[in-house]
């Protein structure tokens, strides 16, 4: 079935949404700049002492599990409870879920606050759903992405959707799964090279938060962010030579594609 989403309305951002990111040091700068490239505003702030004032100013919150420490755990959990109290649109990125018990415990604590969006790559979300997963660290495995495995994950996410009715789940990979209690959407843009530089999933999480902060619904924000980012990658592949060049070009396209008819290239369907 055709997706009931008007992708031509995703961009431009009219309100320069301010996105607070509590995230990892590895991709932090890429995320901040990616937000600026699409017309949003980033603030990477994780000191709970400023949350009461900061939350009055922000449009959305991104919580990224990537690089853990006791202090980061405190920041993530404090921000998560502020977001609940202030009903702040929130994206939780389960980076590396499955790697360790402590990471899993923190991830579950964040999901249990019923955030707007919970994302991860297919291997991370298979771990989260208790399914066998071949993920390596923070990277997905193609072994987890066959048709049967995708359908198995969709079923598991729909079941979990019953426990978290306010949350929409995104599992990214060669195909991307968007699942909540009411809908299952499969997205199919992008190129393999998007799995070959660090931060692609993190950047998608930041863009989703920006689109939520702009006022888009969760399904529109997710499908819009994933499709837009992946179409930037498709264009970058045509213009680049080598992975470092491809990374640069993908980021570059974030500011360019929105003035093109990118939305005519969106591939996906509602199951
Ligand atoms: N093989 C692929 N083909 C097309 N798009 C891909 C592929 N792998 C990843 N992507 C895209 O790259 C982005 C990051 O996905 P992924 O690599 O699964 O996340 P992470 O970086 O968190 O592991 C998503 O938008 C996803 O659709
Ligand atoms: C390499 C690495 N290690 C901890 S976080 C991180 C970046 C993960 O980024 P992404 O989830 O977008 O691949
Ligand atoms: Mg990731």
From TrEMBL:
<protein>
    <recommendedName>
        <fullName>Hydroxyethylthiazole kinase</fullName>
        <ecNumber>2.7.1.50</ecNumber>
    </recommendedName>
</protein>
<dbReference type="GO" id="GO:0000287">
    <property type="term" value="F:magnesium ion binding"/>
</dbReference>
<keyword id="KW-0067">ATP-binding</keyword>
<keyword id="KW-0418">Kinase</keyword>
<dbReference type="Pfam" id="PF02110">
    <property type="entry name" value="HK"/>
</dbReference>
<comment type="similarity">
    <text>Belongs to the Thz kinase family.</text>
</comment>
<dbReference type="GO" id="GO:0004417">
    <property type="term" value="F:hydroxyethylthiazole kinase activity"/>
</dbReference>
<feature type="binding site">
    <location>
        <position position="44"/>
    </location>
    <ligand>
        <name>substrate</name>
    </ligand>
</feature>
<keyword id="KW-0479">Metal-binding</keyword>
<feature type="binding site">
    <location>
        <position position="172"/>
    </location>
    <ligand>
        <name>ATP</name>
    </ligand>
</feature>
<dbReference type="GO" id="GO:0005524">
    <property type="term" value="F:ATP binding"/>
</dbReference>
<comment type="pathway">
    <text>Cofactor biosynthesis; thiamine diphosphate biosynthesis; 4-methyl-5-(2-phosphoethyl)-thiazole from 5-(2-hydroxyethyl)-4-methylthiazole: step 1/1.</text>
</comment>
<comment type="function">
    <text>Catalyzes the phosphorylation of the hydroxyl group of 4-methyl-5-beta-hydroxyethylthiazole (THZ).</text>
</comment>
<keyword id="KW-0547">Nucleotide-binding</keyword>
<dbReference type="InterPro" id="IPR000417">
    <property type="entry name" value="Hyethyz_kinase"/>
</dbReference>
<dbReference type="InterPro" id="IPR029056">
    <property type="entry name" value="Ribokinase-like"/>
</dbReference>
<dbReference type="GO" id="GO:0009228">
    <property type="term" value="P:thiamine biosynthetic process"/>
</dbReference>
<keyword id="KW-0460">Magnesium</keyword>
<keyword id="KW-0784">Thiamine biosynthesis</keyword>
<feature type="binding site">
    <location>
        <position position="199"/>
    </location>
    <ligand>
        <name>substrate</name>
    </ligand>
</feature>
<dbReference type="GO" id="GO:0009229">
    <property type="term" value="P:thiamine diphosphate biosynthetic process"/>
</dbReference>
<keyword id="KW-0808">Transferase</keyword>
<feature type="binding site">
    <location>
        <position position="119"/>
    </location>
    <ligand>
        <name>ATP</name>
    </ligand>
</feature>
